[in-house]
Amino acid sequence: MNQNPSETPTRIPPDINNNAMQLTIPTVFLDKAAKAKAAAKQSKAQDFLHKKQDVKESIANIIAILKIINAEMQYEQDQETFTVLIQQKEVFEKILSQKQTGEKNSLRTIENEIISQLQNQVKNLEKSMENKFNLILKTIESNQTQTQAQSQAQTQSQAENQSQIQSQIQSQIQSQTQSQNQTKTYAQVAAVNVEQDNLQQTKQQQKQKEKEKEKEKYREKRLIVQVDKETAEGFDSYILRNKINDRFFTEANIDQPVIATATKSFTSLSIILTTMPDFSADFLLQKKAIWEDIFSNKAQNIEKDKQ
């Protein structure tokens, strides 16, 4: 075979293009990975700062609440309310310690303690309110008894004064009669007896009117809800009273108790609702739409006390 010696073959490096690709592609991916890693670090740093700021704000709020509780404790005179404030202070101090130390293991325990304490506080407040309602009722009854006693004392005093005047008149009549050596006629004796009878009848009538007036006031506070015997024997007076009072609070915006007591009648065929002094049975009848459904259509008849 013949070859031209003047032609020298050109040698091309076989991997020149592959080397270029090997140098370029990894560099691009490394830049993207670095940027992503930097962005992730920045996001974590921002989240950390936000959480730290939230914790600071939460601590500041809890400290403010503790200051308010301490201020209330200085001026609170009711022992039961003071006890509730102490319990609330202990709860918020535990939460503050949790926030400041950053311990997370006891968070669920603290939450359970808080829920338990709040439930106990609600029960204690309900019992306290019931005791206060009973005390108010006893005070009202005591005041009524005192008023009756004062009225009776005044009536008795008036009767005694009238009796003294009558005695003085009789004494004067007797003195005049003796001085004039005159004897009483039958008509004079009868007139004195009639006057005494009239005074006695007037006194009895006054007492009877006072009794009727007190009974009428008491009846005006009572509403009779007729139900079957099973319903009357099975109901809880405390729960029923609170349900009706809650309805007036949520639907009529009345922020004081309306029902003082809910009791079973002697025959166990009725439930008797007695209102607080500021309300009456007529008021309950006017607002019947607010509370009637609590009896779940078991109320056979609703009427004022007529006895």
Short description:
The chain is of the alpha+beta class and 307 residues long. The protein has eight helices and four strands; from the N terminus they run ααααβααββααβ.
Explain what you see.
This protein has 307 residues and is an alpha+beta fold. It has 3 domains: 22-103; 153-218; 221-304, Alpha-Beta Plaits. The protein contains 8 helices and 4 strands. A 4-stranded antiparallel β-sheet has the order 2-3-1-4. Strand 2 and strand 3 form a beta hairpin. Helix 1 (16-75) packs antiparallel against helix 2, helix 2 (79-101) runs antiparallel to helix 3 and helix 3 (107-179) packs antiparallel against helix 4. It is elongated. The chain starts with 15 loop residues before the first helix and ends with a strand.
Pick out its properties.
307 residues, alpha+beta, Alpha-Beta Plaits, 8 helices
Give a topology summary.
Blueprint: H1 16-75, H2 79-101, H3 107-179, H4 186-220, E1 222-226, H5 229-234, H6 237-251, E2 259-264, E3 270-275, H7 281-286, H8 288-291, E4 301-304
Antiparallel strand pairs: 1-3, 1-4, 2-3
Helix pairs in contact: 1-2, 2-3, 3-4
Class based on secondary structure composition and strand pairing: alpha+beta
Integer tally of domains: 3
Count every beta strand, where a strand is a DSSP E run of 2 or more residues. 4
Shape: elongated
Major sheet details: 4 strands, antiparallel
Radius of gyration: 46 Å
Order of strands across the main sheet: 2-3-1-4
Number of helices: 8
